[in-house]
Structure formats: structure tokens, C-alpha cells
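Quick one: structure for this chain?
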Amino acid sequence: MKKLIALASLLPGLALADTGYYMVTAYDVEGQASVDYKYWNAHYHGRTVAAPEIGIGYGVTSRWYTELYGSWVKFNGGGAVYSELAWQNDYLLTQGQYPFDLAIHTKIERPRERSDGYALEIGPALQTEIGRTQFNANLFFQRDYRTEAGGPTEMTYQLQVKHRWKSWFQPGLQVFGEVGKWDDWLPLNQQSHRAGPAIFGGRDIGKQELKYEAAYLIGRNSGRAAKSFTMRLQYIF
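Got it. Here's what it folds into:
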């Protein structure tokens, strides 16, 4: 554990939040349960950090999706260490009555050491379509309550374009970023912005479905050049 803390201290400002690497989308999945596996890594200056995650999700109603998952972290190819438990909830406010759909995303994170408090993320998730092309834009506000006073409220964003070419192969583009405090942005050279190509798809397996997505992101994490790979597999039943 001491080694992990020492390595973490070498990575100040690196975007570790999973929503810095995975797009939040909200759909009507009422009655569907899923096993959700996610993984991302980032390479920069000869160092590597990676974070596998595993969770269980369920569509409670046509508007409400909830998921509980655990996260681990690995540094420089070392063993994975459990880092946190997270509870995500996405609630659709609209369902087709407007040219776009609007959802509210929330997530509560509880770190490994419960005495460290918790973190909260909340914000709107927008989605629209033009023909067979889907567009997503999300804006989230994050705050760390690991101290009595709580940390500053920071702002992050997500952008995505996806073309529904085939059910098993849909090319697209993803963009993620963090700008610092929501009302006092960091200087541009200290902000984090990553973008790159992405692919999506799914296959029916009897009455079940396997969905995937993957992206290769290039950009900066807190002023440091970094390259990242992300992937997500969902087994829906």
C-alpha cells in the first residue's frame, strides 16, 4: 500500500474519474439487467496507470437506470488494488417529445478507506440524432467530500458522435475534458482535454445481448501529454 501511495504522488492531477474515459448515455432499458466491465489506461512520460471496473446495472423503469460497481487501480504494470465503490443513477427527463433527450446523471463514490468520506458527481446528459448519426453532450460537476469542508466543485465535459452504420460496427468520436473549478477555470495549459476515434457495436446471443465500445484518446492530463485506451463490455440479460 505504501508503494501505491508513493506512485500516486508522482501522478498529481491525472484524471482518474471513470467518467473522464467513459461516455454516459441514458436509454429506456426497463427490466434489463447487465454485467458491466470497463477498463482504461493512460501512458505518459514512461509511466502507466490503469483502472479495471466491474458492476451490475438494472433498468428500474423506462426512465431510471442504476448501477453499482467497484474500481481497482494499477500503476506501472503492478498488481491491481481496490480503490472505490460507486453508485451511478441516470434518470431520463424527456422521452422523445423534443428533438433531444435530456437525462440527469448522478454518481456517489465511496473510497476504499471509509474514513476518507465520499465524492459526488451530478449533471445533465443530452442526446439527439440526425438521420443515423447520434450526438451526445454531457456536463458534470464533481465535488470531493473527503474533508470536513469539502473540496472545490469542478467541471468536466463529455462529447460523442456515433454513426449507426451496422448493429455490430458503429464508428464514432469521443472527447473528454476537465477544466478545474466550475466558476474559476484553470489556465489552458493546466486543463485536461482528450479526444480520439471510437467504435461501438453489439450482438444478440440468444435472448441476451453483448455490447462493446472502445476508444483511443490522445491529449493532455493536467498539462501532461498522455495517450489512453478505453473499453467497455456489457452482457445484457
